[in-house]
Task: inverse folding
């Protein structure tokens, strides 16, 4: 697995942060604490740190964390913690943002429900989830160890959240490793409702 991810990191290191993250960040009034699940080489983590956020970056690959910590654009005053563990095994404190750019489809179907519940439970009132889920027509649908959802299932997952972005994309292009692929992706930004205003 590590050799395959090395090629992926090499291909994506210079790419900008994901649009879902940027949409979510634009809706926060001030920086907070974010968890970046499946952070990879750090394209989203760096943007969070650059904007003054504190970040816990989590990835199953030690090489990803090493690359993130060795990036020349890592802000010197960054508040960054890291974990090397699979998403389904990770634990993290309550946070303002859970970012999972193209990472959650790699959680196996049997582990996905508990992982999703952990994500939603970790969000503070007013906190957000930003990331992607793969649809049933994705070219990788049916691969062992991957989770795909149809639109009804995505809607069910987001029940109780305020949907700020839900875009369904289907396109034919290539993966970062240069392999042809049909993409069926849900791009999501969703907010946990704030608690009722408790005025005296």
Result:
């Amino acid at each position: 697995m590590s050799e395959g991810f090395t090629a992926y990191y090499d291909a994506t290191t210079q790419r900008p942060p994901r649009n879902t993250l940027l949409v979510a960040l634009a809706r926060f009034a001030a920086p907070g604490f974010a968890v970046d699940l499946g952070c990879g080489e750090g394209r989203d983590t760096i943007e969070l740190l650059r904007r003054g956020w504190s970040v816990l970056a989590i990835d199953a690959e030690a090489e990803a964390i090493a690359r993130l910590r060795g990036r020349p654009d890592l802000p010197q005053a960054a508040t960054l913690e890291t974990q090397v563990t699979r998403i389904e095994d990770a634990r993290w404190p309550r946070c303002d943002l859970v970012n999972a750019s193209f990472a959650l489809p790699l959680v196996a179907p049997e582990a996905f429900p508990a992982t999703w519940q952990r994500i939603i439970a970790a969000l503070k009132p007013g906190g957000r989830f930003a990331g992607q889920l793969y649809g049933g027509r994705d070219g990788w649908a049916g691969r062992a160890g991957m989770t795909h959802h149809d639109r009804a299932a995505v809607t069910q997952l987001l029940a109780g959240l305020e949907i700020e972005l839900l875009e369904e994309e289907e396109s034919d292009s290539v993966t970062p490793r240069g392999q042809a692929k049909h993409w069926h992706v849900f791009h999501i930004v969703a907010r946990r409702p704030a608690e009722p205003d408790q005025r005296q």
Summary: The mean pLDDT is 93. The chain has one domain: 17-163. The beta strands are 33-37, 54-59, 80-84, 95-100, 123-135, 148-149, 162-174, 180-191.
